[in-house]
Amino acid sequence: MSDRDAEYLEYVTAHRGRMLRTARLLTAGDTHWAEDLVQVALTRLYVHWSKVRKEDGAARYADRILVNAFLDERRRMWRRRESATEQLYDAASPPSQDPAERLTVLGALAKLPRRQHAVVVLRYFRDFDVQTTAELMGCSEGTVKSQTSRALSTMRELLHDSLETMESLR
Amino acid sequence: MTDLKELLDEAAGPEPTVTDADLSADLTRGHRALRRRRITGFTTGAVATALVIGVSWSVLPSGTTSGAPQPAVQATKTPKPVQTTPKDYRKLHQDTRKPPVIPAKPVPLAANSTPFAGVVFTCDLIPRGWAVRSFAKQIVLYDPKLANPSQYHDATYVLNVWSEDMVDDGDGLTPAKYGEAWTKLPKVRAGNQQAVATGVPGSPYGRQQVFLRQGNTKHLVTITNQAWNLAWDMNTLLTFAGSCHYKK
């Protein structure tokens, strides 16, 4: 095994789980799409490994690819991710303390426009600051701030209503 | 927004365990993508080079006929045109013109005191009596006394020099022509420069190429010699190549 392969595998071992969790939020719980995004990001990362390792940092590069792959896919509204099969395969959702709450949050994320969706995940799940988020998404800091503001407002409404409804049913 | 962070953290689910199968599949996909990228890069580079060389020949002057020496009667190895039967109904155009005659003595080198214009490189030597044209960031050297060049096969009477950069796709700086990094390619000396050479050493027939690395940079000066009328062997070509360099 070459040094490049060994270093790459070391990185993937350490970061694949984190990338998959980010991708789950970006895809609003679509586990197959999340896995696709992670595979795309890791494949491109391997191709550019020596460059990104030296210049940009592998983690930053992988995050950028992940977010851009997500934004690109969401932009292609004509593209259908699903294909019909005779047999239905039910992917088990990740175990959670409260499946209903989890689905509510994912549902709210899915209703956000794609850039607001990405901003929420990067800033409040990954804890990136405005500048880093802007770099990853390829936009200005002002855009990140405005998208964050709108996203939070929408999320607040959606989550408040949904969580209140759930509370009343309990 | 601590609440939102907690909600998102919960919604993302637990961190999955990375299995050996995941790692193996990721690595396989990476290998495949890198291989595909190299093949694509090489093909694109080759097509672009062929296009530029082809166009540069087409704009060469047709030469003069008055007082031009008759081609010497000398044994030449003229490649027989290969008959192909295209599957397509369209006929493939094949250049069946002959190359110029190989002179009995190789064209000697002479000092070049005029740096090439419009390009980042120059050569301190050029074939004696040959002229210089620049075209599309390339330098084309040709014999202005060659009688009626259009009678000859396009790819047989010019020497091209251009600059290009090696690319690093992960295995180190690699010339576009090759799939292996510079450090792994067999090298020769051309003057005081490191070079990679292709073509049949010592043979004046066929295409010979020399890639000259400029110090430890990614920059190359590339020389393609297809001029039968130079009658150069590889040593002469390397002597000429050794005089080519980026301008200071």
TrEMBL record, chain A:
<dbReference type="InterPro" id="IPR036388">
    <property type="entry name" value="WH-like_DNA-bd_sf"/>
</dbReference>
<dbReference type="GO" id="GO:0006352">
    <property type="term" value="P:DNA-templated transcription initiation"/>
</dbReference>
<keyword id="KW-0804">Transcription</keyword>
<comment type="similarity">
    <text>Belongs to the sigma-70 factor family. ECF subfamily.</text>
</comment>
<feature type="domain" description="RNA polymerase sigma factor 70 region 4 type 2">
    <location>
        <begin position="105"/>
        <end position="154"/>
    </location>
</feature>
<dbReference type="InterPro" id="IPR013249">
    <property type="entry name" value="RNA_pol_sigma70_r4_t2"/>
</dbReference>
<feature type="domain" description="RNA polymerase sigma-70 region 2">
    <location>
        <begin position="12"/>
        <end position="79"/>
    </location>
</feature>
<keyword id="KW-0805">Transcription regulation</keyword>
<dbReference type="Pfam" id="PF04542">
    <property type="entry name" value="Sigma70_r2"/>
</dbReference>
<dbReference type="Pfam" id="PF08281">
    <property type="entry name" value="Sigma70_r4_2"/>
</dbReference>
<protein>
    <submittedName>
        <fullName>RNA polymerase sigma-70 factor (Sigma-E family)</fullName>
    </submittedName>
</protein>
<dbReference type="InterPro" id="IPR039425">
    <property type="entry name" value="RNA_pol_sigma-70-like"/>
</dbReference>
<keyword id="KW-0731">Sigma factor</keyword>
<dbReference type="InterPro" id="IPR014284">
    <property type="entry name" value="RNA_pol_sigma-70_dom"/>
</dbReference>
<dbReference type="InterPro" id="IPR007627">
    <property type="entry name" value="RNA_pol_sigma70_r2"/>
</dbReference>
<dbReference type="InterPro" id="IPR014325">
    <property type="entry name" value="RNA_pol_sigma-E_actinobac"/>
</dbReference>
<dbReference type="InterPro" id="IPR013324">
    <property type="entry name" value="RNA_pol_sigma_r3/r4-like"/>
</dbReference>
<keyword id="KW-0238">DNA-binding</keyword>
<dbReference type="GO" id="GO:0003677">
    <property type="term" value="F:DNA binding"/>
</dbReference>
<dbReference type="GO" id="GO:0016987">
    <property type="term" value="F:sigma factor activity"/>
</dbReference>
<dbReference type="InterPro" id="IPR013325">
    <property type="entry name" value="RNA_pol_sigma_r2"/>
</dbReference>
UniProtKB/TrEMBL annotation, chain B:
<keyword id="KW-0472">Membrane</keyword>
<keyword id="KW-1133">Transmembrane helix</keyword>
<feature type="region of interest" description="Disordered">
    <location>
        <begin position="1"/>
        <end position="23"/>
    </location>
</feature>
<keyword id="KW-0812">Transmembrane</keyword>
<feature type="compositionally biased region" description="Low complexity">
    <location>
        <begin position="76"/>
        <end position="86"/>
    </location>
</feature>
<protein>
    <submittedName>
        <fullName>Uncharacterized protein</fullName>
    </submittedName>
</protein>
<feature type="region of interest" description="Disordered">
    <location>
        <begin position="64"/>
        <end position="106"/>
    </location>
</feature>
<feature type="compositionally biased region" description="Basic and acidic residues">
    <location>
        <begin position="87"/>
        <end position="98"/>
    </location>
</feature>
<feature type="transmembrane region" description="Helical">
    <location>
        <begin position="39"/>
        <end position="60"/>
    </location>
</feature>
